[in-house]
Amino acid sequence: MSVIVHIVKKEFLQVIRDRAFLPLLFLAPILQSMLFGYTVATNVDNISTAILDRDRTQDSRKFIESFSNSGYFRLKYYLQSDSEIDNLLNGGKVKLVINVPEGFSRKLKRNEPINLQVIVDGTDSSTANVILGYTKDIVQRYSLRIVLQLLKKAQVRVPTVDSRFRAWYNPELNSVNYIVPGIICTVIAIVTTMLTSAAIVREREKGTLEQLMVSPIAPYQLILGKVLPFMLVGFVDAIVVLLTGVFWFKVPVHGDIPLLLLLTILFLFNTLGMGILISTISRTQQQAMMTTLFLMIPWIILSGFIFPIENMPEAIQLITYLIPLRYFLIIIRGIILKGVGLYVLWPQVLALTVLGAGILTLSISRFHKRLE
Amino acid sequence: MNEIVIAVNNLTKRFDDLVAVDDVNLQIHKGESFALLGPDGSGKTTTMRLLCGILTPDSGNIIINDIDISKHAEKSRAQIGYMPQRFGLYENLSVLQNINFFSDLYTVDKTIRKKRIDEYLEFSRLTLFANRLARQLSGGMRQKLALICSIIHNPPILLLDEPTTGVDPVSRRDFWKILHRLLAGGMTLVISTPYMDEAERCNRIGLIHKGKMLLVNTPNELKKQLTGKVIEIKCDEPHNVSKLLKKEKSVISAQTFNDKIRVLLDEGANPQNILSLLTSKGMNVVNVKEVIPNVEDIFISKLAK
User: Do B128 and B252 belong to one domain?
Assistant: First the structure.
């Protein structure tokens, strides 16, 4: 046991000596939280909009007002002619153009159908979909109000269904709340896998592994001694990102923090195992880092961190079952946003345990073979 | 007779098709210095790695102080110090931190540790550099630090794999001073080296070539085993002379050093005949003399056969 402590101690001495490394360990997760927190925001509001009002009547202005009143749209340009539309959309200055046709008011009064032209920038399909949704909603409400008024005049009573939406777990549909738990997962996955693989490969590269092998230390002590410091680093990083989320992005935490931290350790067994595995197939530290990145990108993409797994082709969905990040993401979002516990998350915990045991067994047996 | 501390029996190690160590038998006595002498790629390093238990032999065994190391590798580890060709130091740790880490690994008792470290540092003249980082050390200092790290647990046996390759002559002398001190303290040394002069400093030499142990003996006995003669020829055109010599049947080898050629002759050959041959071919020979053979000559003569 004491031998493990000595290796851990040495590992920390080395980390402290590497001055450039230390801020990287703790500043990087904060920076990453900031980066993701602000940029991956999928909330769509402040949509830059251009209006081409060919009618120029009180009715058309009232109709346009219903857009500005919704809070989602920012009416930036009032156009005079069709020719301006191309320029604005090409230059990305607006995402949406609403073209109110001439005769809007007249047709309204005559109870004739009106064709409204709406042009949306479809480059980013998901944002375009959200914008179209808002637009349709506003237009439909507008026409429903007209219909209801007419019916009222005609003294006809019709039933209407109105819906009150409530988003559970994230009432304001704030995407940061959803993103921050994901950042915890990706940051600790990348940091711990990379550090572990690089630290083990460094011993081999520098020839110190040979010294350790001729010493009376057993292989399991060596692995534990090498891996424990990075487990601690991963753990601290998780807490740093969590605190950034809670205090900076005001992410509400509904669940049991000790349980979260406990399951973080379970996840770390998976990433540290991956680190050992990568170290057995890498000759140099650069190779280890490149391999880690190469592996982590599909991990992150397929984990459901940004792209929902349900939208992926079925064959790819099958692959995601092999990715520990997938399960930890569900666990961490479940605990932070929904406040659920083991009674809901046990399948994910089980999957992480099985995967972790598999990765560790494979990596340690490969590590033994490489010692030969 | 001295006690045998290392017994190597029919040791063989293959790497795919290459037989790196081929049926080697060897006995090393307590307190002696033994040189494993051979050119690059002769199997020295593989033999050393087998001795310290990093590699497992394909056949044969190694008994160190009555322990079969392929069966009980852990037990023998405290008995052995191993300094590989490229000793891995922790570059971003200081001299003292490196030594302390290895003391921790070998669980060197705290009460004797400080005294021992101080003593080794002083003897290797590293005391002033105790807090310097390993990566800031010169080649010679690194080598001494590596030596301290590998003997900090005071092992009865020390294995050194080409310890002075690439080290400047002054540091090399320093290094040997430390080795002699360790020998005086009763440690058994096994040193692999491609340098004849280094091998000659040892009590016994084992000549290894292509994985086979050709000869094992003391440097003096080895020299006696040389059946031929060694002559040194001083001449004007050493390059052409050596070309001529190599065509001659009685010449085993001819090596040029500056204006001299060291020639190894067959047992029956007469140096006078060689001289007359050269002059008949129009070469201007300044001087021919018979010299005392060294280990290198023996090695060459053995390889030639």
Answer: no
What are B7-44's pLDDT values in tens digits?
999 999 998 888 888 899 999 999 999 999 988 888 89
Q: How many domains does chain B have?
A: 2
Cα distance between residue B291 and residue B263, in whole Å: 10
Q: Is A315 buried (19+), middle (13-18) or exposed (0-12) by CB count in 10 A?
A: exposed
Q: Are B186 and B263 within one domain? A: no
**A50/A73 Cα distance (integer angstroms):** 10
Instruction: Show the tokens assigned to A372.
Output: 């030969």
- The answer to whether B106 contacts A215, with C-beta atoms less than 8 Å apart, is yes
Say how far residue A188 (Cα) sits from the centre of its chain.
14
d(CA B246, CA B256): 12
CA distance A230 to chain B (A): 18
CATH code at position B258: 3.30.70.100
In the numeric block, which tokens belong to residue A74?
């920012």
pLDDT digits (tens, 9 = 90+) for B157-213: 999 999 888 788 888 888 899 999 999 999 999 999 988 888 889 999 998 888 888
Spatial neighbors of B75 by CB under 8 A, at least 6 apart, are: B67
Closest chain B residue to A202 measured between Cα atoms?
Answer: B90
| Encoded amino acid at A164, one letter | R
The answer to whether the Cα torsion of B240, B242, B244, B246 is positive or negative is: negative
CATH assignment of A47-153, among 3.40.1710.10, 2.60.260.20, 2.40.10.10, 1.20.1250.20? 3.40.1710.10
Q: Which residue, A47, A307, A38, A328, is CA-closest to A176?
A: A38
Distance from CA of B52 to the nearest CA of A (A): 7
The conformational region for residue A357 under phi > 0 = left, psi -120 to 50 = alpha, else beta, is alpha
Q: Do A214 and B107 touch (CB under 8 A)?
A: no
Residue ranges of chain A that CATH labels 3.40.1710.10: 47-153
The residue of chain B with its CA nearest to that of A6 is: B104
Q: Does B89 touch chain A (CB under 8 A)?
A: yes
Q: Are A131 and A49 in contact (CB under 8 A)?
A: no
Strand arrangement of the beta sheet that strand B18-29 belongs to: B18-29, B4-15, B59-64, B67-68
Q: Is the Cβ of A21 closer than 8 Å to some Cβ of chain B? A: no
DSSP B251-293: EEEEEEETTEEEEEE-TT--HHHHHHHHHHTT--EEEEEE---
